[in-house]
Write the structure tokens for this entry.
Amino acid sequence: MDDDELVAHFRLDAEEFTAVYDRYFREVYLYVAGRLDVQVGEDIAAETFCLAFRDRERFDPSRGGMRPWLFGIATNLIARHRRKEARHYRMLAARAPSLPPTATRTKWSTPLRHNVWGRTWPEP
């Protein structure tokens, strides 16, 4: 069954949308997980199909296939996730107490010295 037939079927019967999920979930998941991470990839891939199901009546096959439509939804969700994550980190940075310059230097951030055997130790 090609995309046109699939669209005709799920417009008549919402249960038929499971065929869209079965056909494209793996591709959408791999796309999202490759740009974010595995756990977030699962969530956003699932949300992609929830939004596609909700807006299935708006899908216009004359503007392109099902796959590009789903990838467009996923791309928008990835961008939204990144914006939300950036806002979260900016908020954390704004709330973090400022440390004096000496307090940020630890034994692990100091220059390392090398011995004869190639091992490294922090400077005393």
